[in-house]
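Risk register update: the risk of archive-format incompatibility is retired. Evidence:
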Amino acid sequence: MLSRAFGVSRGVVQGDIFSPVCFVIALECLFKRCESHGGVSLVSVWLERLEYADDAALIDVGYEMASRKVSELEAVAKSQADMEISRPKTEFMAVRDFEVSAAVQADYDEQEWQFSCADCGRGFPSKQGLAIHRGLHCKQRGKDPWELEKVVDVRGVPEERFYRVRWAGWDEEHDSWINWRQLDALDAVDAFWDASALDREKPVWELEEEGLRCRQCCKLFSRAQDLKAHHTRKKGGCTWAEASRAGSKAEKTVIQGKKAAAHKAAGTVCMGGQELVAAFSFKYLGIWFYADGDRVRGREARMEQAADRFRQMGSIWNSSELSVGLKIRLFVAGVYSVLVYGCECWDLSEKAGTALRAWGARRLAMITGREIRDEYLAPSFDLLGSAKARRLKWAGQLLRAEEDFLPRRVALVELERYGGAGHPGGIFQDAPKCASVEELVELARDQQFWSTWVRVVK
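Archived output:
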């Protein structure tokens, strides 16, 4: 359980050049004067709080203890330092991976999307997803302009009806099966149901058509193998087959929303009798943290921020007065630096490495004029290798740090757990392979050797 105090309304020292330092010292004194210290044992290391300057994340084992701790801190701050902890800026996070059900269509319909298709109304979290949908999958584009005379038949379940319609001026041979979303003449649909003996609330399928009629586009086939080919054919197949969202950014958004709702409903932390805001995610020192421990979204957030920076520098990439070499150096300074901030805590798996290389290849191709594939296979700037070298350099600094340095203690426990190789995708994945942790520490202390190894990785 993390309780995070974002700010205060009054400080203890003002107007002095050393007031920030004095304030941090005073805040530490207030922590010491609280009887409830809390904390948890994580990877054999006792953690009481994470802190930087006047920003602290207090760690506890449950809602009740967290409430008692922040309430006591608030009372001590008020009585002994005349300082008010801002409740609106204080949040709590239950660090736990909530199990939620898989995303279904109803979840997508309830989600508030930033972008939506003007034709069919389907929502997307990004412009790219919307563009792909409109270019390949939207069923509403290109409606038939013919005039509808009447509806003559129906198939399908209530939420996904297909109607057989007759066009004005055309005979029965030219009837068409149309999805309800493509019908503007709803009065004709109502007239059909009013005159029909069928139940509007029940599915309508004909037994003799079972295995011959497609249940997605309602097309009727004479043979079962033709229907099977209709479903498996990539080109010329079922035009109404719903594009899968499995693994998409939209699915991740829905799942995260369901986890956030479960997180909020699981319990509350109160400070002075008032409930604090439940934060499923928060940004700490420029890095996004999530209650379910997912480190992928943090990396993706940095990629989005770096992409925005790349677009802001578009005039540089399009300039004919700057050399390609200078543009790449500006790319490294202005875009790459934004991308890899905090990369030391990424889970840099093989899949993540592929995503980073593809991300860099698309942008480097715009700078150099080479093909994206060429930039992926032989990049003008090895973005992935540079990120790995940056992480490995930090790993060496950890191993050479003082023994009581908290990040070093946690890192050593991780190394012990994985037999001196570190967690797959962690900062030690590119370190020299050693038989023991002690051997790896000795290698890190040889800074000349470690610097050479970093250059090899890069």
